[in-house]
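Collaborator request log, item 7. Partner lab (contact: R.S.) asked for a structural prediction of Fucolectin tachylectin-4 pentraxin-1 domain-containing protein to inform their binding assays.
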Amino acid sequence: MILTVLLLIGLLPGPGVTASKENLALGAKAVQSSTYDFLGDAANAVDGNSNTNYLKKSCSHTHSDNNPWLRVELPDVYNVTSVTIVNRKDCCGDRINGAQIRIGNSLDNKGNDNKLVAVIGPMGSEVIKTYKFKATEGRFVNIFLPGQRKILTLCEVKVYADEIFDPKSFYLHDKEDLDNIALRGTATQSSLHSSEISAGFGLPLNAIDGNRNSDLMKGSCMRTQQETSPWWRLSLPRRYVISSVALTNRGDCCSEHVDGAEIRIGDSLENEGKDNPLCTIVSSIPAGQTEHYNCTDLLEGSYVTVVLPGEERTLSLCEVEVFGLPVARCGFLV
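Returned to partner:
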């Protein structure tokens, strides 16, 4: 009986957090950075009408602003787990590209400094898209479009809380829309295997050459010495919001050389980047296969480090692919 009570308590929301599985945005207060005309009121984005034709008066619309935004003010504080965006279809669907979804309880910078939970990539022919993420506490849900002379139009915003979070589906539907930014970076690693120094095999740049060939002797894999906590690090040319990382394992042998590896993302080079925030831990990858990993939180940074904790370990990877978008602040890339 005591165990049952404890389990039920564990399912309850935290103090001050309201539970709900309805569309929390429906009829909520909505405000935006500016209003283009009488057809584009912010309230249109939370009216329950998903009509995608702006002239039907069911979409919000800002002026051409620097960093336009729309904020939905929920009636209480919730553990928000997904946001659905309905884009405009009659024209201008690409205007939403790069918009950020931010959630929290602060109104600093109009709420646009709250926690980043998703970045809206190109929607293509899709009009409706749902972004799922780990439960994030907040009352304010902002759609923030960084950049100069941008227009933000939203035909509906739906907000849901307390859903079951499945990391396997987190942003997986978006990776096809994003470039492999690892190809723009440089790479280094903790050591080079002694047998490969003269042959040119096992080099750190082999893991970002765009070639997934899984045979080390074909010259497209990196490999370290056997050592304590070997690592490989990607340095990007600027800061990015990173949604997923793909690793290709060796297929010729030694597939266990990646078991237990940690993917870390951030801006620090302390301890060779091994102390940056953890994206995920790799349990194992089948020989010669590529696995995509989606961080449980969107992480920002210019360094992606793969570290293999433990003594007498060898790290070997045949390709590292990283998917994300540049971080923007005040309309400028940083």
